[in-house]
């Protein structure tokens, strides 16, 4: 591998001599813009890839070079491995950052990168394969003595599912072995529902991930969705950067995230950190990753799954820790050591993130594409917006509906909530439908203000 420049680490007084000179970003939208910014700050040249629908996208204009990799549909462009690898080789990029979604957790793509002598900025293909398979991940965590939600191995049939559910006791969750994003999951409350739910979950998983295999978990209720941020280098050092509360969800899709969680005590946080570091080391993890837990009201937490990539909500952790996770992804991939210890990681204040989606909550959250006629993002001290929108940009209908993330940071949670309400009120986004008003309503709910909300919060709204 060729490393073309010297980088000065923001944590060290001495220069680090191993760093990429050019990185290709195999993604689009706000996360591509986020990674390009990190590259610019590190003095690294960036290469964008884009579909025909994204020819006028912001990430294309920001990058030093850009390559069209196919038609509008994801399968023909952002999931087109050969086109992306060709762009990397042609441009001379030494590494590929996959962002999140698309190919970010694809073990085959990581293997192809390795064969082409291109660094995949993420964990190894072996780890992606092990932890991307939720059944394998559960067994790995059990072996590491990390608490796991009671559940089964892979189910072979509806008949076996009925048998296991009877033993486990209803309600249960049928869950896809592969993929994520809430796909391939069905809640089953009684035996008469299980055959239909099994077929629907398996079909959805097969359609989205090419794998219809399912397993079953006991449905825990009420629970919070708590996740921990991991950074691990290639020298055996693994750090946990605290937790995020991601319990505000609609149909298993996160809408609001915050750090730290309002219900996690210092003692509980120590246990979460210890379990997370143990989990990372158990699978030999490297780079950035997220471990997801369910937290019950009695203070017990259970491993749910591991996301072997950068999370959408990584910014809230950056705001409370002061650690740039994207830059550290790049440094770790280049072979550098973490310069922090666990004692160096401090959570200061409170950060909240709201996901701005181009959708209409009043019309069953119908997605909305179209031209942005007027745009103004909120600003001020400790207010951050991650987005690829600009005035007169035409949002294409082919991709995820999230168009921006607004993040705020303050000394206290109460102040952060007020700051986020003010930020949402300041947002001007005309020409398309979006969910900012809906998010403001959530922030004003008594349960949210108290911090006692669970993952079913929006079911009650």
Fold and architecture overview:
The protein has 461 residues and is an alpha+beta fold. The protein folds into 3 domains: 115 residues, Rossmann fold; 69 residues, Dna Ligase, domain 1; 238 residues, ATP-grasp fold, B domain (D-amino Acid Aminotransferase, Chain A, domain 1, 2-Layer Sandwich). The relative contact order is 0.12. The strands form 7 sheets. An 8-stranded antiparallel beta sheet has the order 15-14-11-12-13-16-23-21. The chain is globular, with a radius of gyration of 21 Å.
Please name the defining characteristics of this protein.
Dna Ligase, domain 1, Rossmann fold, globular, 461 residues, 24 strands, D-amino Acid Aminotransferase, Chain A, domain 1, 8-stranded antiparallel beta sheet, 5-stranded parallel beta sheet, 27% strand, alpha+beta, 15 helices, single chain
Sketch the major β-sheet.
8 strands, antiparallel
Number of helices: 15
Identify the CATH architecture of the largest domain: 2-Layer Sandwich
**Helix/strand/pairing category:** alpha+beta
Pick out the low-confidence regions: 11-15
Rounded average pLDDT: 94
Any idea what the radius of gyration is? 21 Å
Give the overall shape, derived from the CA principal axes: globular
What is the number of independent domains?
3
CATH fold category name of the largest domain: D-amino Acid Aminotransferase, Chain A, domain 1
End-to-end distance:
54 Å
